[in-house]
Amino acid sequence: MIEFEPVDLTTEERRLQVEVIEFLEQELPHGTYRPGLGFSAEKDPAFSRKLGERGWLGMALPTEYGGHDRSAVDRFIVAEQLLRWGAPVGHHWVADRQSGPVIAKFGTEEQKRTFLPRICSGELSFCIGMSEPDSGSDLASLSTRAVRDGDGWVVSGTKIWTTMAHEHDYVIALTRTTPIEESGDKRNGLTQFIIDLASPGLTATPIPFIDNSADFCEVVFDDVYVPADRVLGEVGQGWAQNTSELAYERGGPDRWLSSYLLVEELLRRDGASDTDARPSPELLDLLGNAVANYWVLHHLSLSVARDIDRGGAPAIESSLVKEMGTRFEQDVVTAVLAYLDEAPNTLDSSVFGHLLMTAALTQPSFTVRGGTNEVLRSVAAKGLRPSGSSR
Ligand SMILES: Cc1cc2nc3c(=O)[nH]c(=O)nc-3n(C[C@H](O)[C@H](O)[C@H](O)COP(=O)(O)OP(=O)(O)OC[C@H]3O[C@@H](n4cnc5c(N)ncnc54)[C@H](O)[C@@H]3O)c2cc1C
After folding, report:
1. 365 CB within 6 A, ligand 1
2. At what angle do helices 11-27 and 72-85 cross, to 10 degrees?
């Protein structure tokens, strides 16, 4: 059954929300930094370390590994405000959102002690090594191989769209360790590895994106040696582990907040410039729609976090939030462009101009990254089979 229980924040949680806003007002006053769109915002390792010092990374990880034993709701509260601010979260986002929790869940004692404290301090960055040139939605058909070699493994193959692989420290890569002919089912015989992106034989080449950024990469593994102690979890159990990693990737505020900043910046620009100090009816209309949808998604996403805290595994609900959330992200861009009734100006270097140009060019990717909307609808429709064959 699909369930979204209504959620209110407790007094303690509201206090955390205020604390994060005050921190951001002090650290990143408006006008002093270049805000970015959601989790693909700027990378600033120093800012990530500050969050680590505040205890706002690895919040739900165990204290014995540098975490804070806090709730998924607490993490939600911090994440939502950072995204609303367009804060430079690019360095730590994937490590905090999914690599840390996955290592905490499936990693060995040695892996937890090696990686988790440095994820919680904001030092280490991770990327996601799932997609391949011929395996995106149908992820289980991937062909990157890992073959035993003495004490370790040798990995060969190509991953693609691996965000920040040219700058980050590690990739958690899903590989095939038993050929499909032997494993019987394409979902069997897959294994996850934690791979150092500086390994000999590994090349990460950035792919230019339409907005002139080059954040995601083609990653070629040319017989990359990976020590046996970098197998994550059980050999052959990579599919089930990867499915649980996707649940961390999908239900959070980063899947509906990428473009909302545009509305706030538009309001700063046009709301204040009207001569009678009242926003125009068109702007009020846009704002009303955006805020109402924001509020719905905020509550649905919060409900997912609360369910996780109660021990639930809301994979279907997360898929629905991502499906609705990413459509909202695109609708916001469409509404702002319609309100302006003019194409974005490449020469406009103002905060709003830069955000608008980036949003207009990259918005098609919102419903693709992390699993396409068609596939998410399929996951939701199947309902009782969230660990189906598609990502
Ligand atoms: C900005 C961005 C960042 C990304 N970062 C990463 C990353 O860091 N790491 C990583 O591993 N991957 C990353 N990806 C890849 C992303 O996860 C894949 O693009 C996505 O899973 C879709 O795979 P594909 O591109 O191969 O498309 P395909 O799977 O080829 O799909 C093409 C079209 O067919 C549709 N389709 C496919 N199968 C079905 C089906 N069964 N039913 C209905 N429709 C279907 C899809 O919805 C889509 O419209 C990123 C992608 C983007 C855009």
Report:
1. yes
2. 30
Ligand 1 centroid to residue 364 C-alpha, Å: 12
Atom of ligand 1 nearest to the CA of 129: 11
Terminal CA-CA length for the chain: 21
Write down the pLDDT at residue 389: 45
User: Whole-angstrom Cα distance, residue 99 to residue 216?
Assistant: 17
Q: What is the mean pLDDT of residues 237-248?
A: 88
Structure tokens at 187: 């979902």
CATH of 128-237, one of 3.40.1280.10, 3.30.2350.10, 2.40.240.50, 2.40.110.10: 2.40.110.10
Residue 113 has pLDDT above 90, yes or no: yes
Q: Which atom of ligand 1 is nearest to the CA of 163?
A: 8
Residue nearest to atom 39 of ligand 1 (CA): 375
What is this structure's pTM?
0.94
CATH number of 11-124: 1.10.540.10
d(CA 257, ligand 1 centre) in Å? 20
Average pLDDT over the chain, rounded to an integer: 93
From CA 32, how far away is CA 245, in angstroms rounded? 35
Strand spans (E) along the chain: 126-129, 145-149, 152-163, 170-176, 190-196, 202-206, 216-227, 231-232
Contact present, 66 and 121 (Cβ < 8 Å): yes
> Residue 372 CA: which ligand 1 atom is closest?
47
Q: Which of 43, 97, 137 to mutate to test the pocket of ligand 1 (most atoms within 8 A of CB)?
A: 137
> What is the sign, positive or negative, of the torsion defined by CA atoms of 190, 195, 199, 203?
positive
- CATH code linked to domain 251-382: 1.20.140.10
pLDDT at 274 over 80: no
Q: By alpha-carbon position, which residue is closest to atom 32 of ligand 1?
A: 137
